[in-house]
Write a structure and sequence with these properties.
Helix content is about 70%, strand content about 0%. By secondary structure, it is mostly helical. It folds into 2 domains: about 100 residues, Orthogonal Bundle (Rna Polymerase Sigma Factor, Chain: A); about 100 residues, Winged helix-like DNA-binding domain superfamily/Winged helix DNA-binding domain (Arc Repressor Mutant, subunit A), CATH 1.10.10.10. InterPro entries: RNA_pol_sigma-70-like (IPR039425), RNA_pol_sigma-70_dom (IPR014284), RNA_pol_sigma70_r2 (IPR007627), RNA_pol_sigma70_r4_t2 (IPR013249), RNA_pol_sigma_r2 (IPR013325), RNA_pol_sigma_r3/r4-like (IPR013324), WH-like_DNA-bd_sf (IPR036388). It comes from Streptomyces chisholmiae. Belongs to the sigma-70 factor family. ECF subfamily. Keywords: Sigma factor, Transcription, Transcription regulation.
Length: about 220
Amino acid sequence: MNHTMHARLRAGDPDAFRELFDSYAGLVYGYAARATGDRSLAEDVVSLCFLEAWRLRDRLRDEGETPRPWLMGIAVNVLRNTARAKRRHERAMARLPPPPTEPDFSDEVAGRLADAEQLAAVKRALDRLPERERQTFMLHVWSGLSYAETAEALGVRLGTVRSRLSRTRKRLRGLADEELRIGARRRGEVPEEHREPTRRRGQQPGDRRLMAVRSIEENRP
């Protein structure tokens, strides 16, 4: 998108905003889904993000060739506010009586459990990181923003982004592995690296990771 497009967005051109949505709704959704582990909530974040973009359209500057950092900066703030609202809702719901027992539909969802568990494990690992490191990692690694775009979205210096990513990558893999092991123990499963018979020669504990953990390294630039 060039400067003419930026001007159209600031002027509230519906076609320009339709193009903005078509170009970046998937990016915002992916960011929100990974951050929350909740696809329904992620859809709400997308809607709120673009409503906020419409409200703040006069703040879009002409610098740069893309409004992506501006939009993702809005997404960061929307997600933060949405997460707070969700926590307040959950606390309120926790004070209500438990609902009646529902029928067991486990057979219908068995094929989706692994993905949900992996996503939940990585989400818990991310939640253990400082908020600034978590946001930087998600924008750059998972949402594909460049170092400069990430810095612009978060309002920090380029060197700050690089140093945060260096720290985060070192910590996140270990935290994600730990969360997967904790989840396995809670379900009464034995982690594969602790099973018998003896591992193959040369294989180290943790060599076989679940896809959610491997994707952390697969997405690094």
